[in-house]
Amino acid sequence: MTDDYDAADNARKCYDVAIAAMREKLHGFRQERIGDCWLINADCKEVLPLLPKVDAVVTDPPYGIGEASKNFASRGKPINSSNSRSRAIARAIDYGKSDWDSSTQDDAIAAAIERVKWSIVFGGNYYRLPPTSCWLIWDKLNGDSDFADCEMAWTNLPKAVRRIRFLWNGCMRRERDVTREHPTQKPVDVMKWCIEHIPEPHNKTILDPFMGSGTTGVACVKLGRKFIGIEIDPGYFDIACKRIKDAYAQPDMFVEQSKTEPPRQLDLMEAAE
Ligand SMILES: C[S@@+](CC[C@H](N)C(=O)[O-])C[C@H]1O[C@@H](n2cnc3c(N)ncnc32)[C@H](O)[C@@H]1O
Q1: Per-residue pLDDT for 86 more than 90?
Q2: Could you list the residue range(s) of the whole structural domain that residue 206 is in?
Q3: How many domains, in total, are found in the chain?
Q4: Which residue's CA is the nearest one to ligand 1's atom 27?
Q5: What residue spans of 48-204 are helical by DSSP H?
Q6: CB 184 within 8 A of CB 60
């Protein structure tokens, strides 16, 4: 009996020591807590093992196609210049950052999705992921340009393939009021559409380990969800912080108020509770 008690006591002490060590390590990273969003400026491979449990991963990792290194400097040229719609397509913009898209991050994606019930991974067609019934397809209505017609998000959702049509190019694009601050920035409405596919009850806390300019976080604010975002680049991290602050400052008049709790500070380990 005493031995059993000692073993249980010892296990609890080990657990407490491990949690204290994790908290200390997490404190070593630059982080911001804005309302129900917890943003960490770090390599997600270091942070993922330290995080509390979350419901779902919704992310847009590097596709490993050199998007940031001018591979696509010529991309965006209209294929058929006699087509007036294709002339309106935006050219690729140089954002001055050069290497974040040089390879895929299979290990980080595996580590992220193994800890949650539901996952949505943009660019899943570049990753080693299991067969699935449900891909979320974003049809970009690109006309005759040499941009891809669609982007594909792998999911493990128990659903059939779903598609959203959402124009996101040139002066005709939707969300024209949103400044493009990242070369692969996603539309907020597309990320909202993705998040809304995640079924109850595991849809409350969303993790994006590759948050870029924070679009998944902005979508979470607008849907009244909790969000944990990780971004390695300090410049994009700053942009994400600002966009998420702005999202809280300009509540969407169409957000169901009942779903949205007032912003408050999150404790370090309570994000998923
Ligand atoms: C495809 S972009 C995400 C763009 C985002 N969806 C948006 O709307 O702005 C991928 C991001 O992952 C970041 N990244 C790359 N490797 C990372 C890592 N190991 N840990 C955290 N972030 C990383 C890159 O800096 C880049 O901003």
Answers
A1: no
A2: 29-259
A3: 1
A4: 212
A5: 84-87, 106-113, 188-195
A6: yes
Please work out whether the CB of residue 60 comes within 6 Å of at least one atom of ligand 1: yes
Q: What is the pLDDT of residues 174-195, one digit of tens each?
A: 777 778 889 999 999 999 999 9
Q: Domain containing 101 — which CATH number?
A: 3.40.50.150
**pLDDT tens digit string along 200-217?**
999 999 999 999 999 999
Contact 271, 205 (CB under 8 A): yes
The predicted model scores a pTM of 0.83
* Residue 98 CA: distances (Å) to CA of 80, 94, 148, 208, 233: 30, 9, 21, 21, 11
In a domain, 10, yes or no: no
Q: Is 184 in the pocket of ligand 1 (CB under 6 A)?
A: yes
Structural domain includes residue 8: no
Amino acid symbol at 55: D
Q: Find out whether 202 and 56 touch, Cβ atoms under 8 Å.
A: yes
Q: Is residue 17 part of a domain?
A: no
- Residue 97, domain member (yes or no): yes
In this prediction, residue 255 has a pLDDT band, given cuts at 50, 70 and 90, of: low
Q: From atom 13 of ligand 1, which residue's Cα is the shortest distance away?
A: 210
